[in-house]
Amino acid sequence: MNIQELINDKATTIVDVRTEAEFLEGNVNGSINIPLNEVVDRIMELKAMQPLVLCCLSGGRSGQATDFLQAQGCNDVHNGGGWEMVASQKK
Question: Which of 16, 26, 9 is CA-nearest to residue 59?
Fold first, then answer.
């Protein structure tokens, strides 16, 4: 499944790892906000939400979170990049 198919799959959770303030300025419809600094503390919650597509402003923070979660055994986690790119692919 490619990233666009994942983004549009009803089973996928889109997680925005930007700060709450950034998230409130604009976000992907239906996404949830778990800031990067909370990912470590919320790993069990995130594992239960798989499959995941993570996004942020440009893809850097979501890339860090994706790498971390994959290292912790999350196999169905994908870096969607910037939130606006993810939003543009969502139908």
Answer: 16
Decide if pLDDT at 1 tops 90. no
Domain that includes residue 57, residue range: 3-89
Average pLDDT, the chain: 97
Helix (H, G, I), strand (E, B) or coil at 52: strand
**In the annotation, is 74 catalytic?**
no
Average pLDDT over residues 1-24: 97
CATH number of the domain where residue 69 is located: 3.40.250.10
Active-site option among 6, 39, 52, 56: 56
Six-digit token string for 77: 């986690």
Structural domain tally of the chain?
Answer: 1
